[in-house]
C-alpha cells in the first residue's frame, strides 16, 4: 500500500514535471513569437519611414505648395502630383502623406477631419477634397462663362485657362463623346 502511494506520488510528480515543462515551452514559444512580431512591426515602420523620405526627396524639387487663391488651383496641382506618382511609381499607401505637405492650409485642415482608412486612401481623399472645394460641373461652367483676360496676361495664357476650365468641366461630367456633352 505504501509502495502504491509512493508509485502514485512518483507518477503525479512526473505528470507535474511534464506539465510544467510543456507550460514553460509554451511560454518560451509565445515570447519568441511576440519578439518576432515586434521585430516585424519595427522593420515595417522603418521601411515606411524610409519610403516616405525617399519619395519625399524625389518630389520636393518638382512641386511647389498649392495656393489658397482659388479652389480651381487644386486640379492642376493634383494632376501634377498624379504625373509624379506615376513616373516615380509611388505606392498608394504613402501618397496622402506625401501630398499633404504641399496642400493649402484649407485642404490640410479638411484632411485632418478624416479618420481611419479614409485618411490614408488617396482616391478617397482626392474625391473628398473635390467635394469640399465644390469642384462640380456647375462651378466649372460658371467659371468658364465669367472668366476675363487679365491685362498682364497673354492671349495664349488666357486660352490655356479657358481650355483647362472646359477640360475639367467635361471630365467632371464624365463625357466621353460629343453626343454626351450635349
Q: What would you note in describing this structure?
A:
With 182 residues, this protein is mainly α. The chain folds into 3 domains: 1-55; 62-133, Non-ribosomal Peptide Synthetase Peptidyl Carrier Protein, Chain A (Orthogonal Bundle); 136-182, no CATH class. It has helices spanning 2-60, 74-88, 95-100, 105-112, 117-120, 122-132, 137-146, 155-172, 178-181. The model has no long low-confidence stretch (mean pLDDT 83).
Give the arrangement of secondary structure elements:
Elements: H1 2-60, H2 74-88, H3 95-100, H4 105-112, H5 117-120, H6 122-132, H7 137-146, H8 155-172, H9 178-181
What is the CATH architecture descriptor of the largest domain?
Answer: Orthogonal Bundle
What's the mean pLDDT score? 83
Give the low-pLDDT segments. none
Number of strands: 0
Which secondary-structure class do the elements indicate?
A: mainly alpha
Helices and strands, in order, run as: HHHHHHHHH
Tally of individual domains:
3
N- to C-terminal distance: 104 Å
What is the molecular shape?
Answer: rod-shaped
User: Main β-sheet: number of strands, strand sense, barrel status?
Assistant: none
What fraction, in percent, of the residue positions are helical? over 70%
Number of DSSP helical runs: 9
State the name of the first-level CATH class of the largest domain.
Mainly Alpha
Q: Radius of gyration, rounded?
A: 31 Å
Strand content: under 5%
CATH domain fold name of the largest domain = Non-ribosomal Peptide Synthetase Peptidyl Carrier Protein, Chain A
Amino acid at each position: 500500500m505504501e509502495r502504491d502511494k509512493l508509485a502514485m506520488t512518483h507518477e503525479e510528480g512526473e505528470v507535474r514535471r511534464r506539465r510544467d515543462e510543456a507550460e514553460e515551452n509554451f511560454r518560451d514559444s509565445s515570447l519568441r513569437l511576440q519578439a518576432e512580431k515586434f521585430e516585424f512591426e519595427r522593420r515595417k515602420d522603418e521601411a515606411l519611414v524610409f519610403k516616405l523620405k525617399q519619395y519625399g526627396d524625389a518630389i520636393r524639387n518638382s512641386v511647389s505648395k498649392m495656393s489658397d487663391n482659388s479652389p480651381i488651383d487644386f486640379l492642376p496641382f493634383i494632376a501634377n502630383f498624379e504625373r509624379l506618382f506615376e513616373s516615380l511609381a509611388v505606392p498608394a499607401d504613402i501618397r496622402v502623406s506625401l501630398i499633404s505637405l504641399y496642400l493649402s492650409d484649407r485642404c490640410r485642415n479638411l484632411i485632418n477631419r478624416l479618420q481611419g482608412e479614409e485618411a490614408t486612401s488617396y482616391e478617397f481623399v482626392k474625391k473628398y477634397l473635390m467635394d469640399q472645394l465644390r469642384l462640380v460641373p456647375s462651378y466649372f461652367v460658371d467659371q468658364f462663362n465669367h472668366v476675363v483676360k487679365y491685362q498682364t496676361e497673354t492671349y495664349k495664357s488666357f486660352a490655356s485657362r479657358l481650355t483647362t476650365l472646359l477640360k475639367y468641366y467635361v471630365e467632371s461630367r464624365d463625357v466621353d463623346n460629343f453626343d454626351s456633352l450635349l
